[in-house]
Amino acid sequence: MIIVTGAAGFIGSCLIARLNELNFNYIIAVDDFSFPAKNKNLEGKKIKERVERTELATWLDQHYREVEFFFHIGARTDTTEFDKSIFDELNVNYSKMVWQKCIDYQIPLVYASSAATYGLGELGYDDNESQIPNLKPLNPYGDSKNDFDIWALQQEEKPFFWAGLKFFNVYGPNEYHKGRMASVIWHAFNQISEKGSLRLFKSHKPEYADGEQMRDFIYVKDLISVCVFLMEHRKNSGIYNLGTGIARSFNALGTSTFVAMNKPVQINYIDTPVDIRDTYQYFTEANMSKLRSIGYEDPFFTLEAGVKDYVQNYLIPGKYW
Questions:
Q1: Is residue 319 a known part of a binding site?
Q2: Per the entry's comment, what about the domains (predicted)?
């Protein structure tokens, strides 16, 4: 059996879809299942059992002998939430429980960290573990992910295999429920569908033109391929970046969305909301050499190819993966 936390969410449900495609059908889906908006993400998927998030520790104590791998994807990911206690509970302490259970029961573990840990990128975007204690995230969400990374590295006892993955800007199917926290591509598709135009944030830094803020956008199918690789690889434990290694502008992202929808490009610019303006990342780009050095060789989707697949095969027909 394979455990997936955050199973009804965006990345967790995509991971289950890929595992099912690979004929892994004994999936233990862990989540807070009280949010009906996420239920469609699991429709049609082969799952052995659903376990409420709060019941996982007890369930593991009873069924650990059957568990072969643990993907801890679930987290509170709202970057506009500033109640630190919520992140301490859901992102830090819950992850510590998962970590300890994987040690106790000898279960290999992959968990989700975040590129939000890099803050403004003052120290670059290298997944050098010696630099992790020096990083300065910009919000409590980023703090919580970095706090757990630091804690994990400090532990004398570790799972026999573990990997923390710093997800960069992920986009793709099954994010319909995420609202404001959905990818810019999801928002772009909806804006273009409704109005024929797209609004992007203005730049509030003179060194960047409007829409030329840059991020490392990674298609969720690539992210899932890396997860499967690590499940099969099971060596070289540590913390890894997970982006494409190539930063692209929001203008390029918007243009790719118009092209995928076969519509003329019309981009307008609006002020960045005040509540996120001071913590807005203008540039992110993952150094991917560490993951490549352990044998991951698959190419990543280009932004254009990823957007085309997402828009034409999922957003336009309203399909889930």
A1: no
A2: Contains a large N-terminal NADP-binding domain, and a smaller C-terminal substrate-binding domain.
Catalytic annotation, residues = 141, 178
- Whether residue 32 is annotated as binding a ligand: the answer is yes
Question: Is this structure's pTM higher than 0.90?
Answer: yes
Is 202 part of any known ligand binding site?
Answer: yes
Was 211 annotated as part of a binding site? no
Which contacts of 249-253 are long-range, i.e. CB under 8 A and separated by 24 or more positions?
A: 249/211, 249/212, 249/213, 249/214, 250/184, 250/200, 250/201, 250/211, 250/212, 250/213, 250/214, 250/215, 251/200, 251/211, 251/212, 252/303, 253/184, 253/185, 253/188, 253/217, 253/303, 253/307
The mean pLDDT value for 189-203 works out to: 97
In order of their start, the domains of the chain are: 2-171+217-243+285-300 (3.40.50.720)
